[in-house]
Amino acid sequence: MAKNITWVVNCITMVGGVERVVCNISNYLVENGFNVKIISINTMKGQPFFPLSDKVQIEHCGYPVNDILDRKKLKKFLKTILVKENGASDTIITCHPWIAMPILQQKRAFKGKIICTEHAAWEYYTKIRQFFNTFYYRRADKLVVLTKNAAKIYREHGVKNVAVIPNILASVPKTAAPLKSKELVATGRLTGVKGYDRLLEAISLIKDDFAPWHLTLYGDGEDHIKLIDIIHQNHLEKLVSVVPFTDKIQEKLQKCSGFIVSSHNESFSLAAIEALSNGVPVISFDIPALREMDHGKSCIIFAEQNNIKDLADKIKQYIHSDDIVARGKKARELADYYTLETVGPLWLKLLS
């Protein structure tokens, strides 16, 4: 079994889903006898935002962010990593196509296995990006995707070396949220694909019926000013708050009564699973990954994708319903599909 694992990521100190997943899996692997190193390309120093075992080695490269688009320079830089890790590492794991592509182009420089993990939804990419992703992923020893739907898409596009391993839920809270508050929560990077502008528009459609409920959006990102402007334009200041991402998100989930996913697309949604594990019902646009995540149990309330009025109606129906607590009890059942005990062995099998 391969015992020396090297992750190659862009910035392990970022607050994002990929970084959380890398930390969760790394913690699991070191506790199962693996030697794990994380090579963080764009950082000079720093520790991950998410909990990481001190058994995991971090190597900062300080590669300039501004040079990422210089493909020749990036390819040459990544080759130095392949050469250095050759013999020292059994398996290299990538998390982003822009890192995976140059590495797979130079696969001969590394004698071990190369595993690529894909964390973005197929719809997220342009047509040309989809073409290049599938063209180069065929060279990987394995492509790991998060859902059966994603695996089906890649296989239809000629990538046969696909494995399905969902994201790991680090832990399941001992107690469920009491669901007594009038608080809804959304979390994630404040960027276009997350559709928070659509969520705010939905709240504006029902603002006369929304109080005393309140929505808190936890996140940081380039759309922060845009979202604040939307709140002001629609006079939602008393109904909606946008606050920085917090490492106390579990506490916030325990104190809320609903979680909303307004994304245009999602490859998975670890945030939604964390909400469900806290017994917090989820309202979401109809996204294939979340449909699969629901396992046909109707624990997630779906609104028609791109239909903002339908999302508004679903939120309104939910906050005025009498079955919130019953939905919460049922939601906890979904967490069992994504625990360390369930998902962890899939990684051990893959690396064997």
How would you describe this protein?
38% of the residues lie in helices and 16% in strands. The chain is α/β, with parallel strands linked by helices and 352 residues long. The chain folds into two domains: 4-164, Glycogen Phosphorylase B (Rossmann fold, 3-Layer(aba) Sandwich); 183-337, Glycogen Phosphorylase B (Rossmann fold), CATH 3.40.50. A seven-stranded parallel beta sheet has the order 3-2-1-4-5-6-7, with helices on both faces. Strands 8-9-10 form a three-stranded parallel beta sheet, covered by helices on one side. Helix 8 (224-233) links the parallel strand 9 and strand 10 (240-243). Helix 6 runs parallel beside helix 8 (224-233) and helix 6 packs across helix 12. The longest helix is centred in the first third of the chain and has 15 residues, at 71-85. The chain is globular and about 65 Å long. The protein starts with a strand and ends with a helix.
